[in-house]
Amino acid sequence: MRLRGKTILLSGASSGIGRAAAELFAREGAAVALLARREALLEEVVRGIEAAGGRALALPGDITDEAFVAQAAARAAEWGGGLDAVLANAALGLVGEVEHFAYADWCRMLEVNLGGTFLLVRAAIPHLRARGGGHVLAVGSELSRGAMPGLAGYVASKWGLLGFMRALSMELHRHNIRVCSVLPGGTLTDFGPDDAADKRARRERGERFLEPASVAEALLFALQQPPEARVTELDIMPM
After folding, report:
1. How far apart are CA 137 and CA 148, in angstroms?
2. Which helix (H) or strand (E) holds 31?
């Protein structure tokens, strides 16, 4: 159990990559505190982890609510006896060409994808520092370094996330806090305009996608670096 004794706070944990990571981290011995808006799905994840012998805490709420995020980080640290890692995974992916894209949708996407990450990380830093170090992980995208028509707002948020994480790595290095962005290619989740079933059908027609569990394994790898090493960015692409 490679994460035995660790407490990890995850956002976007009710489905997709976040859920896969929560379940894997719990199987590896971590106590996982889980943030998401959809309370029923979040409780389902917690029940599954507990049924398998793990420890999990549901923290339902909005990642863009500053007071909620601060309270959730404090609650996770209290429940887990400290905080060893935080995973920023919550994201919103809205599609539309710029000419017809609503400014409210643009702002909301940046608020979730960048603002939510900022709030979560900021709330976690004092707890990580109190442990003498730890990890900050974020799930970016292959579009963190690329682009695609119809996804200008999402692309902008993911480029911004990568820049934020690079600067954060420089800030937190002196506190023994490792910062890593994991950048997956297309993944079989309900995220974005197509659900997982649609993506599986496209895979049957020859398109390539990752399983959420494969991305979770990459996140686990980022948490297991030896003391003299750190991984700052990790691409994971489908075969």
Report:
1. 24
2. strand 31-36
Which two tokens mark 108?
A: 């909301």
Buried b (16+ CB within 10 A) or exposed e, 141-151: bbbbeeeeeeb
In the chain, the number of structural domains is 1
Distance, CA of 50 to CA of 35 (rounded, Å): 16
CA dihedral 41→53→3→72, nearest 10 degrees, is: 40
Token output for 213: 């569990």
Residue 15's alpha-carbon distances to 2, 18, 209, in angstroms, are 23, 6, 17
Q: Are 144 and 89 in contact (CB under 8 A)?
A: no
Which domain CATH number covers 89? Answer: 3.40.50.720
Q: Confirm whether 1 is domain-assigned.
A: no
pLDDT, tens digit, 9 for 90 and up, residues 102-133: 999 999 999 999 999 999 999 999 999 999 99
Residue 108 and residue 91: Cα distance in Å, rounded? 10
CA atoms within 13 A on the CB side of 220: 22
Residues of the chain with pLDDT > 70, as a percent, come to 100
- Which pTM does this prediction carry? 0.95
State the residue range of the domain holding 144. Answer: 7-236
Q: How far is CA 233 from the centre of its chain?
A: 14
Residues annotated as part of the active site: 154
